[in-house]
Amino acid sequence: MMHVREGQPEDAAQLERLLGDVPGMPDRIRAAARESLREALAGRRCLVAGRPDEPPAAYLTFDPVPLARSATDIGWLVPSHDPGGKPKDAVETLVAALRDGRFGPSSIVRFSSGHWQRGGLDAHVLDAAGMARAGAVESFFGRGDDLVLFVARPPRSGLSAFDPTSAAALYDAAFAYRDFAFERDFLLACAARFGTRKVLRAASWGCWTGRHLLALADRGIDAVGIDEASEALALADATFREDCEGPNDATWVLARLDEPVGEPQVDLSFAMLSAVHRVGSAESMVRHLRSVAALLAPGGVHVIEATLPADATREGNTQTVWTERRGDLEITSRFRILVERRARSGAVPTVLDVRCKQSGDEGVLGSFHQEELWIVPDEAGWRDLVARAGGFAIAAILGDFQLDVRWDQAGAWRMILVLRRTEDSTAEP
To answer: Cα–Cα distance between 298 and 23 in angstroms, integer?
Structure first.
């Protein structure tokens, strides 16, 4: 049986032997990998897989992801290339040890790798070891050597029985790759920097299954989840009751984004995952902002995670495909912005398709199809909508889940508006 242990400085010779046996690895890359290994052993950031009383079968080096408490990056993954070896078993054991929290906090594991970073392994070995491909850049490291981003996530507590026929469960699985703990900390950082209220109660608009609210509950914050899908709210309620470890209160409200919510005021409000675009028109967006202003206490902030305006054009990122794995199930999602069918009003149709199948089988166990008409304002459009709604000042427009990245600077991949509820608001729902 394969075991994992923390690498020690005295393991250096054996692990460097693994590295030296990788066939065809260029000398300069082998030297870089050797230096990384030595640094990882000194910093206790190396894991070794093998069987007792046998030479190591594989090792990996790792680092925590900056600003993300629950994510880990693999730096190098080097298996034995002995004939008859089973690198898939060693890789699976190492990834599981990181993912399941045996050597630190239970983590989302990322691996941005080329052929040599994964020790000469073909990408399908990592597929077989339970890492889902989240993206790729062809020939990034050289001709035929693609950069492939792999992701693995820890087992989820609570609702372990995944229902592939449930639209709510499929949608929840489609976006499980998000680092909700990291995004929670970002939301709280927005409240701290741009607002004036201590966050004791938060509202999520278009909450679906309430993952951000569940993460906030870990910080002792009560939840108000708002969504127009009753099945999603039912799953949110069940997940919250099973996964929430504290005594936090959660209220689930069946309502559209542009409808008023008759609940006590909150200190923080947000609409994540581009949910706000589904209002479909400028008039509905103004109604949404007025409804938010009525629920949000003065000094609180409303955070909108919006799509970059460029992505609603022919030159933008109009199509994305990604896969989530649950044991032997594969949940594949495809999102499209149909810019060629833009309406005269400027709204664009969007389509999300989620399909679940057994690994290695083409039969579909369950599917989810959603078509929406999105309004995707540019900066001037957002400023006009906020002014029309009243009740808010624009505190920041960010381009990432970091407070120092503007939406229009290089590397920005989102448009995140932070609106501060003004004291003298006259907004009405």
So the answer is: 63
Q: Name, in order, each residue with C-beta under 8 angstroms of 52's C-beta and a sequence gap of 6 or more.
A: 3
Residue-wise pLDDT tens digits, 22-78: 999 999 999 999 999 999 999 999 999 998 888 999 999 999 887 666 789 999 999
Of 174, 253, 257, whose CA–CA distance to 213 is shortest? Answer: 253
> Could you give phi then psi for residue 273, rounded to 5 degrees?
55, 35
Query: In CATH, what number is assigned to the domain containing residue 97?
Result: 3.40.630.30
**Residue range 72-100: mean pLDDT, rounded:** 88
Q: How confident is the model at residue 410 (pLDDT cuts 50, 70, 90)?
A: confident
**pLDDT at position 424, please?**
59
The number of folded domains in the chain is 2
387: Cβ–Cβ under 8 A, 6 or more apart, which residues?
none
CATH number, position 405: 3.40.50.150
- What is the side-by-side order of every strand in the sheet holding 132-142? 3-6, 46-50, 58-64, 71-79, 108-113, 145-152, 132-142
Provide the residue range defining the domain that includes 84: 3-152
**210 and 111 in one domain?**
no
Amino acid type, 286: V
Outline where DSSP puts E strands in 84-193: 108-113, 132-142, 145-152
Q: What angle do CA 283, 288, 294 make, to 5 degrees?
A: 130
